Amino acid sequence: MTAFTVVTILPEIVEGALGAGVIGRARVAGTLDVATVNPRDFTTDKHRSVDDTPYGGGPGMVMRPGPLLAAIEQASARVPGAHRILLSPAGAPLTQARVRELAALPHLVLVCGRYEGIDDRVVTRAIDEELSLGDFVLTGGELGAAAIVDAVARLMPGVLGEPASADDESFSGALLEYPQYTRPAELDADKVPDVLLGGNHEAIRRWRRGEALRRTARRRPDLLARHRFTAEDDKLARGVPELEVGARVSIALCHYPVTDRTGAIVTTAVTNLDLHDLARSSATYGLDACYIVTPIESQREKCAAIADAWRGEGKEYRLDALARVHAAAAIADAIADLKLRHGADPLVIATTAAADRFPGAVPCTPEKLLHELHGTTAPALILFGTGWGLVDSMIPEVSRVLAPISGRGSWNHLSVRSAVAVILDRLLGLRA
Ligand code: 4GY
Fold first, then answer.
1. 196: exposed, middle or buried (C-beta count within 10 Å: 0-12, 13-18, 19+)?
2. Rounded to 5, what percent of the chain is helix, strand, coil?
3. CA distances in angstroms from 51 to 40, 112, 337, 351, 407, listed in the order given
4. In the chain, N or C: fewer CB atoms in 10 Å?
């Protein structure tokens, strides 16, 4: 059982947060041990002051090291094996995985700062770990400390009524929870899903898993990108627009209309390397199609010849990639092909290395675009330029423009093959 000692000048906040509900009951029953230690009790001056002005100037006050260090020392001695945590926005973001690890420790000492912060020598001398609840600022660490006690305590045997309900919830499998319902079965016109009323437990389990996948895709695509799909997940994902975004995305490598270095509108030449690499990226991320756009018929024939050259070589995986490649005479032809095959106008997204291109299009990032694609069943076509870039005035179908890919530096001459790979990975790539 983990014991908790909260170091705070405002113990009433901690008591208020941890005095009721299952946590409060567990404390009364003796299955949960939470105590507080107040740094003010370790002051020696007549005003019992715990703060002082900051060296170097600036607004507000800083917590003095003396009383705080003495309080942490006494708190740590209360139960052996103390692990000392400071609650701070500068700490590592708390995760359920870390909560589970903390639940295995014998004693957590939760140190709460107030004012502008605490003397940094307290951190270097008497803190083992800094944790943050998230990227926002509280007036003190107390609510963070109470949150950690709550999250850790609910994993401890005997604190929650039913021990099993602690590990099948959000994040244990990196999926959000499925929606829950209770009586009445009809709230005005709002009905509880039929499957939940039917009593077919296998159907209910499958429906819940599907809902968890769908919700996670919509609300937390970052979590879904880390989720390992089971064979059942793959089956459930089939035909669900939020879970099959890649199959609605196509790219077009445009050899016209693009500019050359003088700004003149030109047609560039198809290259073997671009074609292969874009085909391979398209296959990696499960895209619908990779259009190679050129108005020159002999160049389109060259595309077909490149694809043909790999047939009968025994390299089936290459054919798989090259099967997605379609030569198109114009961007409008690629758009028409998508409309025909998907039954809806594609969302057309331009890419550019220059921030001032496509001024009429809505600026977006791959992450925002993914969110938008979750809300529609329409296909998407991402346009990539060659030469010195796409001619914005000649592609009226473009409604979105992706911000240029950029690192810290100002050098921006990424190859189109790299740009495609980076954008597709940000849009559809799995993490870890
Ligand atoms: N965020 N996560 C947080 C916080 C308040 C100044 C140090 C947070 O955990 N704690 O915002 N804490 C600050 C206020 C002193 C603590």
1. middle
2. 40, 20, 40
3. 10, 13, 70, 54, 42
4. C
Count of H-run helices and E-run strands, the chain: 16, 18
Residue 172 pLDDT more than 50?
no
Q: In angstroms, what is the span from residue 143 Cα to ligand 1's centroid?
A: 9
Alpha carbon of 14 to ligand 1 centroid (Å) = 14
Q: Mean pLDDT in the chain?
A: 95
Percent of the chain with pLDDT over 90: 92
What mean pLDDT is predicted for residues 32-54?
Answer: 98
Whether 401 shows a pLDDT value over 60: the answer reads yes
**Which residue, by CA, sits nearest to atom 13 of ligand 1?**
140
Q: Is the pLDDT of residue 97 over 90?
A: yes
DSSP symbols for 250-290: EEEEE-SSEE-TTS-EE-PPP-HHHHHHHHHHHHHTT-SEE
Q: Which atom of ligand 1 is nearest to the CA of 63?
A: 15
Residue 309 pLDDT class (50, 70, 90 cuts): confident
What is residue 130's predicted lDDT score, i.e. its pLDDT?
A: 98
From atom 3 of ligand 1, which residue's Cα is the shortest distance away? Answer: 88
Q: Which atom of ligand 1 is nearest to the CA of 141?
A: 12
Dump the DSSP string for 37-59. Answer: E-GGGG--STT---EEPPTT--S
Mutate to test the pocket of ligand 1, among 7, 10, 13, 87 (most ligand atoms within 8 A of CB): 87
Give the position of tokens 């675009």: 369
pTM above 0.90, yes or no: yes
Minimum-distance ligand 1 atom for the alpha carbon of 136: 1
Question: Is there an atom of ligand 1 within 6 Å of 317 CB?
Answer: no
Q: What sign does the CA torsion over 204, 209, 213, 219 have?
A: positive
Atom number in ligand 1 closest to CA 118: 15
Does ligand 1 lie within 6 Å of residue 144's CB atom? yes
Q: Is 113 close to ligand 1, i.e. is its CB under 6 Å away?
A: yes
Model confidence at 167, in pLDDT bands (50, 70, 90)?
A: low
Give, in order, the Cα–Cα distances in Å from 410 to each of 43, 198, 413: 54, 60, 10
Find out whether the beta carbon of 140 lies less than 6 Å from any atom of ligand 1.
yes
In the structure encoding, which two tokens stand for residue 223, read together? 């979590």
